[in-house]
């Protein structure tokens, strides 16, 4: 008997959508359902996709007003018109995927409206589910033909309700993250692996994410003078940043660890007393799962700023805009256990465990053979 399939539609505009897709795909495989993953826009319009990804990266790295204008400008536009316009994107490629793989359901980790458009035109009746990967909701995610929404928080659910989405079509599932972040770690082994001292507090700087952290070298030069702390900087694939920090690593071998791209980032989260990062939805969820006090540095206007505001307003993070503010927040967290514990408690309240399982369980319970109408 042929394995059932599920189609996951995503996009490469930021790593969060891709990471959530990977987690959902792995969960499907564990249920003996074959995941078919498609970067629908990239496969349909590769040149445009590459250009717009580059434009987005530049807007992040230069703090350009472009992304602010796009996010908040389109937020004020008629979302129905925007959705209607974008519903044509990738429709041909989607039909190819549907006819080829006959999926039992479709998961969206990026607001793509081709599937809903085809459903509207009665060309297919496959249940389509949207998985929101941030702690805010842009109207562009909304579509009357989405079967069900999986969201991060009650606040996002309330936003959908305010736009007349039925409560029956919304589940507060949390954001899907890798199971390693939900599993207890052997901290002693991790300290030894990274040559860190268990008696000294660890400050982790996540610098190589999609939205590159600003002023990392300046920040490290300020923090390194606190000799009772250990600093770990994760540069990801940012080779120029790694090279610029090499002199600090050479001068302070006992208190400074410089890392490139690593798979086992959850291990460092497990021993971190403070995490300095950009406020992507996935990173925030991973930190909340492991209850790591957060400093969210220079969030870009848009979902970064909205994510950061949600965590800060709920007592789960500090927001900083200058390196001196970061240093002050670090001292507050590491020197005041009561504040650190309050932040951890707030994160525990926000975090929803086993999000991927909640989402896939729901989809499987409603799973039907796809009914596709040819025209």
TrEMBL record:
Gene Ontology cellular component terms for the protein in this record: membrane
GO molecular function, one term: hexosyltransferase activity
Superkingdom of the source species: Bacteria
Gene3D superfamilies found in the cross-reference section: Glycogen Phosphorylase B (3.40.50.2000)
Pfam families linked: Glycos_transf_1, MGDG_synth
Residue ranges constituting the Diacylglycerol glucosyltransferase N-terminal domain according to the UniProt record: 17-177
Domain Glycosyl transferase family: 198-347
GO terms classed as biological process: glycolipid biosynthetic process
Keywords: Glycosyltransferase, Transferase
InterPro entries associated with the record: Diacylglyc_glucosyltr_N, Glyco_trans_1, Glycosyltransf_28_UgtP
Similarity comment text for this entry: Belongs to the glycosyltransferase 28 family.
Protein name in the entry: Glycosyltransferase
Organism: Cytobacillus depressus
């Amino acid at each position: 008997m042929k394995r059932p399939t599920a189609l996951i539609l995503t996009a490469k505009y930021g790593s969060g959508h891709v990471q959530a897709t990977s987690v959902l795909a792995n969960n499907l495989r564990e249920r003996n359902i074959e995941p078919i993953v498609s970067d629908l826009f990239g496969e349909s319009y590769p040149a445009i996709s590459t250009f717009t990804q580059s434009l987005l990266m530049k807007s992040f790295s230069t703090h350009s007003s472009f992304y602010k204008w796009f996010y908040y400008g389109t937020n004020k536009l008629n979302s129905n018109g925007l959705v209607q316009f974008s519903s044509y994107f990738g429709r041909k490629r989607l039909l190819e995927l549907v006819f080829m793989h006959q999926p039992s359901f479709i998961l969206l980790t990026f607001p793509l409206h081709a599937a809903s458009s085809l459903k509207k035109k009665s060309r297919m009746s496959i249940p389509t589910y949207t998985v929101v990967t941030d702690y805010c909701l842009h109207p562009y995610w909304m579509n009357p033909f989405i079967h069900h929404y999986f969201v991060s928080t009650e606040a996002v659910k309330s936003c959908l309700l305010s736009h007349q989405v039925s409560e029956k079509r919304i589940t507060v599932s949390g954001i899907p993250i890798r199971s390693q972040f939900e599993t207890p770690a052997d901290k002693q082994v991790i300290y030894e692996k990274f040559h860190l001292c268990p008696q000294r507090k660890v400050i982790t700087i996540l610098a190589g994410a999609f939205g590159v952290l600003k002023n990392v070298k300046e920040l490290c030069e300020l923090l390194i003078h606190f000799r009772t702390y250990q600093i770990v900087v994760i540069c990801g694939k940012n080779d120029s940043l790694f090279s610029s920090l090499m002199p600090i690593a050479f001068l302070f071998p006992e208190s400074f660890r410089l890392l490139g791209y690593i798979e086992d980032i959850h291990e460092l989260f497990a021993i971190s007393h403070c995490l300095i990062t950009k406020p992507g939805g996935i990173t925030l969820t991973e930190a909340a799962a492991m209850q790591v006090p957060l400093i969210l540095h220079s969030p870009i206007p848009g979902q970064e700023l909205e994510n950061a505001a949600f965590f800060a307003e709920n007592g789960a993070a500090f927001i900083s805009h200058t390196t001196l503010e970061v240093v002050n927040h670090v001292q507050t967290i590491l020197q005041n256990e009561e504040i650190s514990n309050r932040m951890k408690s707030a994160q525990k309240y926000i975090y929803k465990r086993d999000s991927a399982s909640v989402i896939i369980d729901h989809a499987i319970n409603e799973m039907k053979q796809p009914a596709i109408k040819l025209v």
